Amino acid sequence: MLTGLMLTGCATKQASSQTPATAAASAVADRAIEVPDVVGLTLDKATDKLKDLGLEVDATDVNDDKTIMVKKNWQVVSEDPLSGVKVAEGSTVKLGVKHLTDETATPTPTPTPTQAVVPLVAPAAPVVEAPPVVVAPAAPPVVEAPPVVVAPVAPPVVEAPPVVAPPAPPAAVSYPNCTAVRNAGAAPIHSSQPGYGRHLDRDGDGWGCDK
Predict the structure, then answer these.
(1) Burial track 111-150 (b if 16+ CB lie within 10 A, e otherwise)
(2) What is the CATH number for 54?
(3) Which of 2, 17, 32, 133 gets the highest tally of CB atoms within 10 A of its CB?
């Protein structure tokens, strides 16, 4: 009986010691929502998933700050708060998105410090003397031959035809009588032959010295 009274008194004391602020914080903690991982999803699916849990969504283009029109054409590349963090119901999750045709902006990787490499010094190579340079004798200057002058071809010589002198007219022949005609071998002599004369043709028949 005494033990029951003591337990009842302790519970009453603990209930009376809890303030309204503590009670409100405890109630908020009971309604905390764990942010899901939506990176890689299209914006329409990520929005539906977050709003089903009672969270608000604020999406921003991470490349060119373009206006988001059709959510299914955008992909989530970052989220704030990160997945796994518990937030109060109605909290806003900020999503960084890129258009499906854009390249994803990747952060510049931080270089990992490495141990300094000690350069290896190679031993000096022996100096090899180059053989003496033999200078070839200069070639004699090229003497250009004088241009060949081609003499013009003389036209062919056309021989003139031989000049044929016209025959000399026969010398006038005259016979004083028929004896001379006979001595010249011209008897009888016709009127058409040179040397004919009427004194040689007594009968006038055109033939002289015919008798």
Answers:
(1) eeeeeeeeeeeeeeeeeeeeeeeeeeeeeeeeeeeeeeee
(2) 3.30.10.20
(3) 32
